[in-house]
Input
Amino acid sequence: MERIEYRVNDVGQQTEHQTMTARQILKHAEIDPGLHFLLETHPEHVDFQDRPDEAIHMVPHMRFVTEHQVIEYKVNDEDQTTKHRHLTASEILVHAGIDPAANYLAEVFPEHISFEGKPDERIRMHQHMKFISVSIKPTPVSRQ
Output
């Protein structure tokens, strides 16, 4: 049987199997499929996050990269997690228990971006992002 050479995260791998699943490719590369998922980057661009047991026809020189299954981020210094690669500003607020009708979202790390007036803008999520909520209600002034 002929060996098929491929790469996972730029590390060379070999197999004699004509088909493998994303889970098998991860295990063969000694990467935990419970913590990561596989993306094919060459010759196709295919995301196997929700299809870890789908058969992949192996061809020479395929390239794969891995991503974390769970993305960790913070809202108002509170830890949050998601498996979604994209969330809207409103979804981030709601997931953190914050009313998007009374607040807007601002990213403070790694970028400084305000989502004021853009509650449905899709945000590409990645590890360790930091957000804050900003109240859109007027702040009462005390009289003395």
